[in-house]
Amino acid sequence: MITGLGKSARKATVAVALAMLALTQLAPAHAQSRIKDIADFEGVRDNMLVGYGLVVGLNGTGDDLGDADFTRQSLVAMLERLGINVRDQIEDLESDNIAAVMVTSTLPPFSRQGARIDVSISAIGTAKSLQGGTLLVTPMVGADGEVYAVAQGNLAVGGFSAGGAAETIVKGVPTSARIANGGIVEREIDFNLNSMQDMSVVLRNPDFTTARRVSEAINAYLGEVAARPSDPGTVRLNIPDRYNQNVVALLTDIEQLRVEPDQIARVVIDENTGTIVMGENVRINRVAIAQGNLTIRVTESQQVSQPSPFSQTGTTQTVDRTNVEVDEDQDNQLGIMDGGVSLQELVNGLNSLGVGPRDMITILQAIKTSGALQAEIEVM
Fold it and tell me: If we measure between CA atoms, which residue out of 341, 247, 243 comes closest to residue 289?
């Protein structure tokens, strides 16, 4: 009796081990990413803030009030708010220790009143440097025109400028600065996440296949059909009853699920720098490639022509000599690439022809024109 139970237990253990092994074998071998890294959730987003302010305390590197009327007007308005009337002397105001700036920041999602955020400051006038300046109280508004934060503080400038009459040295950008934790949130954005009955999962790189894989991964985890792709960039998610008033727990579980993002075959080209980026799915049909350039080099030199020794005639003269060289790259040969080659084979084939990045751009565009490149070319 005891022996029989032991055999049953061993058989059950072996069956579980085989099942786990089968699941491991069926798992895709390609690189997978968390949903958290490829998608955003509806309502969980940043908001841009902007404001206009004044920086004071500059050591003679501020705006020229004669050229920057907006700085002069801002200075007058600020002094009047502080109870100082300078309207009658507005034309006599002269100071190069103040600068008009734009203040920008990002309001993180679910920021509460009193929370601090980083702000960036950029000069908009004729200021040469913001080094040593202090930003005065600056309201920061959102896209709806409402004030969501207020910024103030001492500036941290990453660059500097120094020079004299004959030479000037500039490192970095001295007209831009930051204030760490320089903004205080004054208004919250109302958004009740836990009360939502459905929401959208928005893919950062829209794709039909990726959207379906995300929905399948979510449904497999929840054990019900709660997610459906509505378009290549959106997956609609109905909140299950067991997560009612606890959407945060649902999103915490979902964002850790792993899926394999799909991507189209694409070649990205930056002609300004000669940079080429190709995806792993880039394929080409059988094609022959020849690459060569005609180079003509003309060299001018001068030689001195002198008469024979002890000669009574002739004078010493300078004679121009011209040397012309023509290089037709006759050593370059026609290369053949078989159809369906991988990205590595394509790169190796082009490198074997001695093709540089600039010429490779032209070759890839020519292959695309011939219809042999099965990928999309995007020129930046």
Answer: 341
